[in-house]
Specification:
With 201 residues, this protein is mainly beta. The protein is 12% helix and 35% strand. The chain has helices spanning 16-19, 71-79, 92-97, 108-112, and strands at residues 23-24, 26-31, 37-42, 45-49, 54-59, 81-86, 116-118, 125-127, 132-143, 150-161, 166-167, 170-171, 179-181, 187-189. The strands form 4 sheets. The protein has a 7-stranded antiparallel β-sheet with strand order 3-2-6-9-10-5-4, with helices on one face. A hairpin with a 6-residue loop joins strand 7 and strand 8. It comes from Rhodovulum adriaticum (Rhodopseudomonas adriatica).
Length: 201
């Protein structure tokens, strides 16, 4: 099968996000200029550079009370900071609860019963029990083609790692089982890893 996106795919459901999988989930926490905290998951998320360490996430929807975007992007525009929290399988239900379309005044931490902790280098909350959290300072927001598509890039200024996820000097993902986004409403749990060395190593 071949299709051009502008012509449509003719399938019952869009296959695009099922093709590019698995995708890590960035559970993005922000604080608005008014002091209101926000927490929302984004599956267009990844690390993009080592030195200095940088991550990105993309927001592709809008809310009527946020002038063409969502709370996360609006807050980051105002404050210049955000925290990317890593989602483990055990947190799947509370993560999903924070994906609801709440009003800008609603604190998703409180709504879903999630403990928050203060970041060290930025004025922003983080998910206290997350396996890892990356404190980020905004480098740029890029408006992509499409009415509400924004890619947000940030430099990692501080890294939190849960002590039980460290094993023999490594951050061991099998200790917490990362949650990954697949297509449609499908998710996956990363429970096993294998070693693959580059030629010459």
């Amino acid at each position: 099968m071949f299709y051009r996106p502008e012509d449509g795919h003719g399938l019952p459901h869009n296959p695009f996000n099922a093709i590019v999988t698995p995708r890590p989930i960035g559970w993005i926490s922000t604080r608005g200029a008014d002091g209101a905290d926000n927490l929302a998951p984004y599956s267009f998320f990844n690390a993009v550079a080592y030195d200095p360490p940088q991550v990105m996430f993309a927001s592709t929807a809008t809310k009527p009370d946020r002038d063409g975007t969502k709370d996360s992007v609006a807050n980051i525009r105002d404050t210049g900071v955000f925290c990317a929290n890593i989602v483990e399988y055990a947190m799947r239900d509370v993560m999903n609860a924070t994906s609801a379309a709440f009003g800008r005044e609603v604190d998703e931490f409180a709504q879903a019963g999630i403990e928050k902790a203060a970041c060290e280098t930025i004025d922003c909350p983080r998910v206290a029990a997350a396996p890892a959290s990356l404190e980020c300072r905004l480098t740029q927001i890029v408006q992509l083609p499409g009415a509400a598509n924004f890619a947000v890039f940030g430099q990692v200024m501080g890294v939190h790692m849960r002590d039980d996820c460290l094993h023999e000097g490594r951050f061991d993902v099998t200790r917490f089982v990362p949650l990954a986004r697949m297509g449609y409403r499908d998710y996956a749990a990363i429970q096993a890893v294998f070693d693959l060395r580059r030629p010459g190593e």
